[in-house]
Write a structure and sequence with these properties.
Oligomer: single chain
CATH architecture: 3-Layer(aba) Sandwich
Low-confidence stretches: 1-6
Strand content: 5-15%
Largest sheet: 5 strands, parallel
Order of helices and strands: HEHEHEHHEHHEHH
Length: 232
């Protein structure tokens, strides 16, 4: 295998604050970026538009957007008519799994990332999950990421035959939102090209009240960085 092939990385890229920072971190590690986004018919379609803009601005090698009609499965406020919770106290966010949880989302997304990584002959997969300032999703925890890494190496031809040892990189998992933003600023991330809101208006403006907006506001305030978000 060529050394250049080992420097490719598949990065799960939603267009949000965390995943965009993750792209910047992978780039700083001299990886060639293959960004993978999903149009899963989420109500916050604005993130897909931001992902396209950011991918171009950040010079990724390839940006693939896959269509997954997860609204046909439902079970989440992000893919159905269920109401998105607003103004939930920050201390409550980690105490329950909210209705914005999309069933098995990261398992699904990582499976596609793994498939692409195997075809690209690279062992590096990056995902911007965070287990500190987050909304309590079970598939953002270190235990889940470690388990999926084992699955990746047990369930692929390249892994079983020993040509690749897949690694799930989670560089943000132990950082606060403020620390993530500070790291991104050091790497030149333009957070004006990111979208976090779960329930934007028809013009793509953030609601300012969903869990994701509240965590984003908190992060910028604690980082001492102006929030470029346009709120409705």
């Amino acid at each position: 295998m060529k050394n250049a092939e080992l420097r490719k990385a598949v990065v799960l890229f939603s267009g949000g604050l965390d995943s965009t920072t993750c792209v910047a971190i992978a780039k700083s590690m001299d990886f060639e970026i293959y960004a993978l986004s999903f149009d899963y018919h989420q109500r916050h379609q604005a993130e897909i538009h931001m992902a396209k803009k950011a991918a171009t601005a950040m010079g990724v090698a390839e940006h693939m957007i896959l269509n997954l009609p997860l609204e046909r499965i439902g079970g989440s406020a992000l893919t159905s008519d269920l109401e998105v919770p607003k103004d939930v106290p920050l201390e409550e966010m980690k105490s329950r799994i909210p209705v914005t949880y999309v069933p098995a989302r990261n398992t699904i997304f990582l499976s596609f990332a793994l498939a692409w990584a195997e075809v690209l002959e690279t062992q590096a997969i990056f995902v911007g999950v965070n287990a500190l300032d987050y909304s309590g999703y079970p598939d953002c925890r270190p235990q889940f990421m470690q388990a999926f890494e084992r699955v990746a190496n047990l369930g692929t031809k390249e892994g079983v035959e020993g040509r690749l040892r897949f690694k799930i990189h989670t560089p943000l998992i132990d950082l606060t939102k403020a620390q993530i933003i500070q790291k991104g600023m050091e790497l030149g991330v333009d957070y004006g090209l990111t979208h976090s809101c779960y329930d934007p208006d028809d013009q793509g403006r953030a609601c300012g009240h969903c869990d994701s907006c509240l965590l984003r506001k908190k992060g910028f305030a604690e980082a001492g960085v102006p929030d470029p978000t346009i709120y409705g």
